Amino acid sequence: MYAEALLFHTIDANVWGARGYINALVVPMLAISAARNPHWKVDIVVSRQLIFQSVTLVGAGLYLLAMALAGYYIRVVGGEFGTVGQTVFLFSALVLLLALMFSGELRARTKVFFNKHFFRSKYDYREEWLRINEVLSGAPLDASLCERALHALTRVVESTGGALYQRQRRDYVATASWNMPVQIGDCLAHDEPLLRFMTEKHWVINLEEYARTPKHYDDLVLPKSFTGNARIWAVVPLVHHAALFGFAVLAQPRAPLALNWEIRDMLLMTGRHIAGHLALRESNEALIEARQFEAFNRLSAYVVHDLKNLVAQLSLLVSNAARHRDNPEFMSDAIQTVANATEKMNKLLGQLRKGRMEAGDAKRVSVHALVKEAVQHRALQLPVPSVRLDGADAVVLANPERLAAVLEHLIQNAQDATPPEGIVRVQVSTETAAVSIAITDNGCGMDAVFLREQLFKPFHTTKGNAGMGIGVYESREFVQAIGGRFSVVSAPGQGTTFTLNLPVYGVNENETTAHSARVG
After folding, report:
1. DSSP readout, 86-108?
2. Angle 188-226-154 (CA atoms, 0-180°, nearest 5)?
3. Angle CA(442)–CA(367)–CA(315) in degrees, nearest 5?
4. Shortest CA distance to 388 belongs to which of 375, 399, 378?
5. Nearest to 243, CA basis, from 187, 196, 175
6. pLDDT for 250 beyond 80
7. Is the pLDDT of residue 100 over 80?
8. Average pLDDT for residues 101-119, to the nearest whole number?
9. Which residue ranges form the domains of the chain, and what is each CATH number?
10. Using 50, 70 and 90 to split pLDDT, how confident is the model at 26?
């Protein structure tokens, strides 16, 4: 064209008009050449969702344009009823378009067509992985984990239904079902050939392929409930740590789908991911149940420990009753001791009914009065404890019964570790912000290894059948719960000192700051 224009100083209009068509014919050849030549390729990634939505939009536009032209033609040639016919036709065309756009089968067929003809792989694995995690996390569905897992698996192949079986003890029980004639609770015995096959092979079973060539599955015999149901399309194993955690039964997909290696791998990968989530939930439930039993066992141990102390107190009272029953002061103390034991046992029964140990309501407690009372209660056992009160009487915020039980237990431990001629001393020192209660003995003592590894270990005791091994642990937990600090210093043959540092709530101004007293 340009050569002719150079020679004759004019452009041929026919050649000029043919240029567009010639270029259109050359474009496919250029596309084929670019596909064959790796240096011509441009790394362009187009989203599957973008293509699907763009094609849907363009298709809907072309459809509406064609229907508008058809409606205009009906109006022109329809004569008297042309306008009515045009309105009815356009409305029908719009309803048909909406039905097609919301058709799950049409969407599935369209996706299969584009994945088959425009992409090398069927799945966009990044999008699939994000979608599966989103479904399992419960974001799009307000359903149980089993139902969400089944929904995530059916979406992989656009299945129209399915059922999820999960291992419970030895058998496999249906835990979720959607659009499938399977009742929740239906059970498959552990000795079914299907379960043994999936345990060994970890294969996805395609029932269409199984019906054509059962030898591919080692002549597997499927349950009659599976072979007799024409809707069942595939059985997917849910594998966790190389063991069969469960399996899923999938119904026929919305669009015809060949179960190739890529789809099998995608189903297996999704099944493993689902099995991990289900196993994690099962482990969490087992852990919660174990913690409930642990709490109950700890409650029982605490109650038995307190009962043991009460029994020891009453036993000591009975052993001394034969010698001092004619002593009015002893009888008065005995009645008071029995009343105190009865009150504590009633509180323990109330805690057992509620199913939990309670620290009780915190109250303002006078430290001096409480220490004197604890020392008085332990005065029946040798060596008799002495008490020294330095400074003003401090007030702490705590449950008086539990704090008194802690002091009595520590004093009793000191008495048990000390010979009758030994020394057990309780010293109280009050400062501005804290009050210190030190319980000291010159008994056998403890070494550093025992202090570090065994003293505060629950249910470990050196008293044999006479102890529960939770007294010191419970004492430390209570002191820390009310904001205090619990410490111990000990050495073999040199005795032990337990120290409780409690935050001061107030100071009793009726006592002087330099007051000292000795009782015992």
Report:
1. HHHHHHHHHHHHHHHHT-HHHHH
2. 95
3. 60
4. 375
5. 196
6. yes
7. no
8. 63
9. 2-117 (no CATH), 125-285 (3.30.450.40), 359-519 (3.30.565.10)
10. very high
